[in-house]
Design brief:
about 25% strand; eight-stranded mixed β-sheet; alpha+beta; three-stranded antiparallel β-sheet; single chain
């Protein structure tokens, strides 16, 4: 079945355990004819790359809608500017947390299904987007680890990410981030498909019922494990590239770049369809 989908989508795997490149043209992608196959391959591979497809914003929105329900951005917008330039995005400072491994939507009951990014302006240095397949990382754990982690619960919080990029925030900034709240989630996500993935990353604050040292050891060990080379893919952007990823089975991060570089990505999202529980 997988080989048939690859042939239909003109897809090539970029790494054995994660990421495939699709070379269908704009007309085919916007037709919706291949939407179910794209979704299936996305679930299998975690990340799909459409090189130099050069979608306009309207075309990106249209393509997103062929795949499911478009999730609104802030203030109901359909498109979000991903940049560290505060002149282009007044909330750009919040995106500093995106430089660390994370899953989007850990504060929500139902996280988004997928994100879709298109490249508009590059940074001269850095600015890759990296992905980790948390399905594959779970699958390759030892049976002993799987048994140990099966029923663990983790408190996630947006404010936990603050200390990655601002170790000594003011009380006001800390309280602003804390106001977003906390969320208790399973360490191992049991999906409707029967597959399992790890729910980890920068928002994972501590494992409930464990001391801080033991909790940190497990979370750091799992992050290191899930971001090994065999589970990860780093996308070096070219203007016009479109990349989408399965937010229910991957972590992602941006590699550091100069906030003044003008790097600009445009994002659309697919509404979530499955809760963490």
């Amino acid at each position: 079945m997988t080989s048939a989908i690859h042939e239909k989508l003109k897809a090539t795997d970029l790494k054995p355990r994660i990421a495939s490149e699709i070379k269908l043209g704009k007309k085919d992608l916007l037709s919706g004819e291949f939407a179910s196959d794209i979704r299936e391959l996305l679930e299998q591979r975690g990340v799909l790359v459409f090189p130099k497809i050069n979608f306009t914003d309207d075309e990106q929105v249209e393509f997103t809608r062929t795949l499911g329900t478009l999730a609104p951005e802030m203030a109901g917008e359909t498109m979000y500017k991903v940049t560290l330039d505060t002149k282009e995005n007044a909330l750009a400072d919040y995106l500093k947390g995106s430089l660390y491994w994370h899953i989007d939507g850990t504060m929500n009951d139902v996280p988004i299904l997928a994100s879709i990014l298109s490249s508009k302006v590059l940074s001269p240095t850095g600015g890759n987007t990296e992905f980790s397949n948390t399905y594959a990382a779970y699958d390759d754990l030892s049976d002993e680890d799987k048994k140990e982690f099966e029923d663990m619960r983790v408190e996630h919080s947006a404010w936990a990410t603050l200390f990655y990029y601002n170790p000594e925030p003011s009380l006001q900034i800390a309280q602003q981030m804390m106001a977003i709240g906390e969320k208790e989630l399973p360490l191992v996500w049991h999906h409707k498909s029967g597959r399992k993935s790890l729910v980890i990353g920068a928002t994972a604050h501590h494992i409930l019922g464990l001391g801080s040292r033991k909790s940190t050891e497990i979370l750091v060990r799992l992050r290191d494990w899930a971001t090994r080379p065999e589970f990860t893919y780093s996308h070096k952007w070219t203007v016009g590239d479109l990349v989408m990823w399965d937010n229910t089975g991957t972590m992602h991060r941006a590699t550091p770049y100069d906030p003044a570089s003008g790097r600009m990505l445009h994002r659309t999202k697919l509404q979530g369809e499955e809760s963490f529980e």
